[in-house]
Specification:
The complex is a heterodimer of chains A (236) and B (280). Chain A is mainly alpha-helical. Chain A has two domains: 75 residues, no CATH class; 118 residues, Cytochrome c-like domain (Cytochrome Bc1 Complex, Chain D, domain 2, Orthogonal Bundle). Chain A contains ten helices and no strands. The longest helix of chain A has 14 residues. Helix content of chain B is 42%, strand content 7%. Chain B contains twelve helices and seven strands. In chain B, the strands form three sheets. A three-stranded mixed β-sheet of chain B has the order 6-5-7. Chain B has a two-stranded antiparallel sheet with strand order 1-2. In chain B, helix 4 crosses helix 7, helix 8 packs across helix 12 and helix 11 packs across helix 12. The two termini of chain B are 13 Å apart. The chains are: A mainly alpha (236), B mainly alpha (280). Chains A and B meet through helix 1, helix 2, helix 4, helix 5 and helix 6 of A and helix 8, helix 9, strand 3 and helix 12 of B.
Chain lengths: 236, 280
C-alpha cells in the first residue's frame, strides 16, 4: 500500500517545500495567477499524490470556483459571489426530456445511498454501478429520520407548500445540479456539474423531496424539528 | 463486542504492574478532564467508548510495541533505543507531542511515522520493502505497535509542535493551505466537515478544528477505531479522509500528509494529548 514516500525517495534533497518551484501547471490555475506560496504547495500536492492518471488526476486539479472558494475560505464577498453565481448558472444543463418529476421511490434510494466515486487500490467503488446522492450524510430527510446528518438543513417537510409545481421543480433541480448557482461557495457538491449524478437521477431525488405522498412530506408524522441532539460547546 | 471485553480484561488487570507499559498519563483521566472543561458533543458522543476506554484494546498494541521497541532487530540487530524522536536518542517522554519537527540529520520535517521509518532503515538496517517498514496499517503491524507505544509516552502532555525552523513553519502553512483547498468530484475540503461545532455526518459528531479542547481528541492518534476493530494512525486518518472525499489517497509519509499533520497539531496546541485514544 505505501511505497517509500516521495520524501523518502528524495532523502537528502533538503528543503523540499522551499525548493520545488517548477512543474507543469494546469491551464486553469496558470491563467488564474497563483502566488508563490500557492505554486509551492501545489507542487508539494502533485508530488505527494504521485503518479495519477485519468479521473484520479483530474480530481486533484482545481477549477476556477474551487480555487476562488478555497482562497475565500468559503466566505466570498459581494463581487466574487456575483461572479460565481453567474458562472455556475451558465453551467447548468437540463435533461433532454425537459424538467418532469422523476420516480420518488428511486429518489428515496438515491438520497440514502452513499455508494460511488471512491477510488484507490483498496476498496474502490464499482464505476459500473450507479452513484448515490448520499443526501442523508448531511441532511435529515424525513420527519422521523434519526440517521441523517446535520451539516445541511433538515429536509423534513421540504415539499409542503411547494408540491410538484414546475417552478419549485426547476429551483430544486438547479439546487442539486449546481448549488453554487444559488449559494456561492456552498458546502454542497455540484452533483450534476461534476457528473456525479445524472439529470435523471436528480429528477428522481427532486420527486422524492417534492411529491405530496413522499414520506418526506407526510404531515401526519411531521413534528417540531427535534431539539439539536448535540449540545454546542460553550463559548470560551 | 463481548469478545473485545474479554480480550481487554487481562490488560485491565495488568495495568499498574510496573513491568508493563503504561501511558504517561491515564488517557481516560485526560479525556474526563476535557469533558469537565467544555461542553462538547464530540467529546461525549459515545458513552460506550467512554465506558470501554479503561480497557482500550490499543493498550495491548502499546504493550506489544514496548517489547518491539526495546528488542534488537533488523539486519543490524539493534533496538530503537538510540532513535532520536526529537528530544535526544531514546527519549520518548514528550517527544510525540512535539512532532512533526525539523530533523537536521535528514533535512526534513518528519512526523512520527516517517521518523520511525527513518530509524528502522538507518539504525536497524531494514530495507524499505521489509514488512516492518512497509506495512503501516492494522493493529498487528509493527508500525502500529511501535507508534502506539511511543505516542503513549506523551499522554496528557500539551501538543507543542516546534515552529522555530523555517521549514516547520512552512510545512504548517502548507498544511493550512491544503486544509482549505477545495477540489474533486465532491468540491470538498477538510473545512467542509471540521469548521462547525456539534454537526453530524450521519450519526457521527464531527470535531471542530477551531475548538482546541475538542480538536485535541480529533488529532489524538494512535486510537482504537471501534468500527474498524484496529488501532489507526494519523497517516491513516489523512488517507481515509481523502478516500471518503472521493480522492485518490496521498502517498504515506509524503510532504502533503506531514504538512496537514503539522497544521492540525498546531491547532490543538496547548491541549493535552489523549494517548492512546478510542474512537467510533
Amino acid at each position: 500500500m505505501c511505497p517509500a514516500s516521495v520524501a523518502e525517495r528524495a532523502l537528502g534533497a533538503a528543503a523540499l517545500v522551499l525548493l520545488i518551484m517548477l512543474a507543469g501547471f494546469s491551464a486553469t490555475t496558470q491563467a488564474r495567477g497563483l502566488s508563490a506560496l500557492e505554486r509551492q504547495v501545489e507542487a508539494v500536492i502533485r508530488d505527494s499524490w504521485g503518479d495519477l492518471s485519468g479521473q484520479e488526476a483530474r480530481r486533484l486539479v482545481q477549477d476556477d470556483t474551487q480555487l476562488d472558494c478555497s482562497r475565500a475560505r468559503n466566505q466570498p464577498g459581494p463581487a466574487l459571489s456575483e461572479e460565481i453565481l453567474s458562472r455556475e448558472r451558465a453551467r447548468i444543463r437540463y435533461p433532454e426530456g425537459g424538467l418532469r418529476p422523476g420516480d420518488p421511490v428511486m429518489g428515496a434510494e438515491l438520497a440514502r445511498s452513499g455508494y460511488g466515486g471512491r477510488v484507490g487500490a483498496r476498496r474502490p467503488d464499482d464505476p459500473g454501478r450507479a452513484n448515490g446522492g448520499n443526501c442523508q450524510a448531511c441532511h435529515m430527510l424525513e420527519p422521523r429520520d434519526d440517521a441523517g446528518g446535520t451539516l445541511g438543513p433538515s429536509l423534513a417537510g421540504y415539499g409542503i407548500g411547494r408540491g410538484l409545481d414546475p417552478e419549485a421543480l426547476r429551483h430544486l433541480y438547479e439546487r442539486i445540479y449546481n448549488p453554487q448557482s444559488q449559494m456561492p461557495c456552498s458546502a454542497m457538491p455540484r452533483f450534476g456539474h461534476n457528473g456525479f449524478l445524472t439529470p435523471e437521477q436528480i429528477l428522481d431525488i427532486a420527486a422524492y423531496l417534492l411529491h405530496p405522498d413522499s414520506p418526506v412530506n407526510r404531515t401526519e408524522t411531521l413534528r417540531e424539528a427535534p431539539a439539536d441532539p448535540v449540545r454546542p460547546v460553550a463559548p470560551r | 463486542m463481548m469478545k473485545k471485553v474479554l480480550l481487554a480484561l487481562p490488560v485491565a488487570l495488568a495495568i499498574g504492574v510496573a513491568a508493563h507499559a503504561q501511558p504517561a498519563k491515564d488517557p481516560v483521566l485526560v479525556l474526563e478532564a476535557l469533558i469537565g472543561k467544555v461542553d462538547s458533543a464530540y467529546l461525549t458522543q459515545s458513552e460506550q467508548n467512554l465506558m470501554m476506554m479503561a480497557d482500550n484494546p490499543a493498550l495491548w498494541t502499546m504493550e506489544d510495541g514496548k517489547a518491539l521497541f526495546h528488542t534488537p532487530r533488523g539486519p543490524n540487530n539493534v533496538s530503537l533505543e538510540s532513535c532520536d524522536f526529537g528530544k535526544g536518542p531514546g527519549v520518548l517522554a514528550g517527544a510525540y507531542t512535539e512532532l512533526p519537527r525539523f530533523f537536521a540529520d535528514t533535512g526534513r520535517v518528519m512526523d512520527l511515522e516517517s521518523r520511525l521509518v527513518h530509524c528502522m532503515m538507518t539504525l536497524q538496517g531494514f530495507p524499505a520493502d521489509d514488512p516492518a517498514v512497509r506495512v503501516r496499517d492494522g493493529s498487528n503491524s509493527d508500525h502500529m505497535k511501535l507508534q502506539t507505544y511511543i505516542a503513549a509516552q506523551s499522554s496528557g502532555m500539551p501538543w507543542n509542535p516546534p515552529m522555530k525552523h523555517p521549514l516547520e513553519k512552512a510545512m504548517r502553512d502548507a498544511g493550512e493551505y491544503i486544509f482549505y483547498r477545495r477540489s474533486g468530484t465532491m468540491d470538498f475540503n477538510c473545512a467542509t466537515c471540521h469548521t462547525q461545532t456539534g454537526k453530524r455526518v450521519r450519526a457521527s459528531v464531527l470535531p471542530n478544528s477551531s475548538i482546541p479542547e475538542e480538536w485535541t481528541k480529533a488529532v489524538s492518534w494512535p486510537a482504537f477505531r471501534v468500527g474498524h476493530d484496529h488501532v489507526r494512525s494519523s497517516q491513516h486518518r489523512v488517507r481515509e479522509c481523502y478516500w471518503q472525499m472521493r480522492h485518490a489517497v496521498p502517498i504515506g509519509g509524503s510532504d502533503a500528509t506531514i504538512a496537514l499533520i503539522s497544521y492540525w497539531t498546531d491547532l490543538a496546541r496547548g491541549q493535552p494529548a489523549i494517548l492512546p485514544d478510542m474512537k467510533r
